[in-house]
């Protein structure tokens, strides 16, 4: 499986942010069963499954074992996998992160943090190229305080656009067909930023978090991946297979230009 195949599927990305307290007296047993049933129920409506690593890490060794089991199961169902860890470091540490989530899961994607500079991202880019995966770099995030750094004016334009341009140049060497393996994270809560980044990076897949519970609109466009976590994994604030299916239909039918 090549992660770029996600761009040929419906644009919805299921965010898996497990909350054990919602799963009864045997939370991991129920969580495992619910997640597998949900993947199967939503498979035809999804581009990919996005695993928020922090929630699995918080569950200790059992949580990490569950993460890798669910990621493997998603791939067996034909669903591309995206690990949302926002990793970033220099030298051999970046290479180790890349090996852990890209080389060991060929065809998967990983979110990364660009704050250390482009040289610190290079190991992730190389791993994505050799593994058939992708890297999604934080550019304009969905949280309300993202503008503190990301919107800083540099030579008359926000910093995030300078970053997007630099990543687009880096990504040209990692293009296969219309799309690059260097993607970008741009919050659906900032549709004007989505349009601005798309203008300077026409070949980058864009991961748009914040759809649903955070109020982001399900934007329509080629190369856009719309990530919804609470609205899909826990519709109504609880595990609900039928509710998740209805939520997926609603988000896809509400796609706007």
Automatic annotation (TrEMBL):
UniProt record, GO biological process: 'de novo' pyrimidine nucleobase biosynthetic process; 'de novo' UMP biosynthetic process
Pfam families tied to this protein: OMPdecase (PF00215)
GO MF annotation list: orotidine-5'-phosphate decarboxylase activity
Gene3D superfamilies, sorted: Aldolase class I
Keywords: Decarboxylase, Lyase, Pyrimidine biosynthesis
UniProt keyword annotation of Transcription present: no
Highest taxon listed in the record's lineage: Bacteria
Start and end residues of each Orotidine 5'-phosphate decarboxylase domain: 11-244
Catalytic site: 86
SUPFAM superfamilies for this protein: Ribulose-phoshate binding barrel (SSF51366)
E.C. number(s) listed in UniProt: 4.1.1.23
Pathway(s) it belongs to: Pyrimidine metabolism; UMP biosynthesis via de novo pathway; UMP from orotate: step 2/2
Catalytically driven reaction(s): orotidine 5'-phosphate + H(+) = UMP + CO2
Record family assignment: Belongs to the OMP decarboxylase family. Type 2 subfamily.
The protein's name in its UniProt record: Orotidine 5'-phosphate decarboxylase
